[in-house]
Amino acid sequence: MVSMVFRIHFTTEDLARTKVADAPMPLLELKQAARALQRTDQPARLSGWRRHARARLSAEARLALDFLPPVGWSPTFIGPPRAGGPAELIEQVRATSPGQIRKALTTILPTTEAPLGTRHLADPDFLGRLCDGLSALYDVLLAPYWPAMADAFTADRSVRVRQVLHGGVEHLLSQANPEDMRWNPPVLEIATRGDSTTYDLHLEGRGLLLVPSVMLTRPLIQHDAEPQPAVTYPAGHDQPLRRLTAFAPTGTPHTVAALLGHTRAAVLTTIAEHPGCSTKEVAAFAGLAPSSASEHATILREAGLVTTTRHRNTALHSLTQLGRRLLNHTPDRPEAP
């Protein structure tokens, strides 16, 4: 696959207005989940999720899939970089005016192979059926896993905010996804799939919105997003996230689990693998609610296995020597997935 290079040009004003999204974006994640469902080159650990989802797809959900193909164009108004509840966002899609849809299709259809029903999108009845399908698709693909996905988003965002505090926005741009995004001041170069053409985007004072995504495997540029262009990148590139059905804690030493209980042992193992992690990060990596992660971290700290420091309002957890010795003396510790 040839890599396309997308060059995003920053001014001083753009750096000042660049930020990380405050909350996860359900429809953006739904679009990526739909693509992952239909592609065979996604991580093998998603195989169980695919089988489970495909067996539960309704006719309405399959209609929505027609407009979210594994590769290529899909209507931009279906998966905008916008936070909110899925029902609220789908209602916003339903309210898209026929004029807005026709304007978008005028520029897309002459140059892009689109689903057969695309020309019917300006019909309110057809658009309503599509929105019903989006709702059904969300219920199958994401709803059971959304709390864990939201925690994973929060964990990644906390890392990015810390990067800004320690090194500024330029440090954030260089570290958010170094495999595919290279900060070459004053240009952010992003490698994406496509032809070998180089594209240039001048932000012109609008800044850039960075959006962590649990489902995405490579960066996605939305140059026409409002009020500012957005780049969605894989969350936790440096600490691979357990996705979907794999969110449940795994890899816990058996003897430690027998001593502490599976959940508390998973928290201890998570802190060992991610020293200096926050409570929200512990929750995301271990697949727990933040309140549960906090409770278990407190018990581990009182037992002398974990130490906790604070950075501003964030609690950061690391192993003590006693905690490290406990894990290191477990003979049957499995390899990390």
Could you characterize what this model shows?
Helix 11 crosses helix 12. The longest helix is centred in the middle third of the chain and has 30 residues, at 146-175. The radius of gyration is 22 Å and the shape is globular. It has 337 residues and is an alpha/beta fold. It has helices at residues 12-17, 26-38, 47-54, 59-66, 86-94, 98-108, 124-141, 146-175, 254-260, 262-273, 279-286, 290-302, 321-328, and strands at residues 3-9, 19-20, 181-184, 187-193, 198-202, 209-213, 220-222, 230-234, 277-278, 306-311, 314-319.
Could you name the key traits of this structure?
337 residues, alpha/beta, single chain, four-stranded mixed β-sheet, disordered C terminus, globular, 45% helix, 13 helices
Give the CA-based shape: globular
Number of helices: 13
Quote the average pLDDT: 81
For the termini, the CA-CA separation is 27 Å
Bin the strand percentage. 15-25%
Main sheet overview? 4 strands, mixed
- Multimeric state of these chains? single chain
Helix residue percentage: 40-55%
- Based on CA atoms alone, the radius of gyration comes out at 22 Å
Which parts are unreliable, with pLDDT below 50 for 5 consecutive residues or more?
238-252, 330-337
Please write out the topology.
Layout: E1 3-9, H1 12-17, E2 19-20, H2 26-38, H3 47-54, H4 59-66, H5 86-94, H6 98-108, H7 124-141, H8 146-175, E3 181-184, E4 187-193, E5 198-202, E6 209-213, E7 220-222, E8 230-234, H9 254-260, H10 262-273, E9 277-278, H11 279-286, H12 290-302, E10 306-311, E11 314-319, H13 321-328
Parallel strand pairs: 1-5, 2-6, 6-8
Antiparallel strand pairs: 1-4, 3-4, 7-8, 9-11, 10-11
Helix pairs in contact: 2-7, 4-7, 5-7, 8-11, 9-10, 10-11, 10-12, 11-12
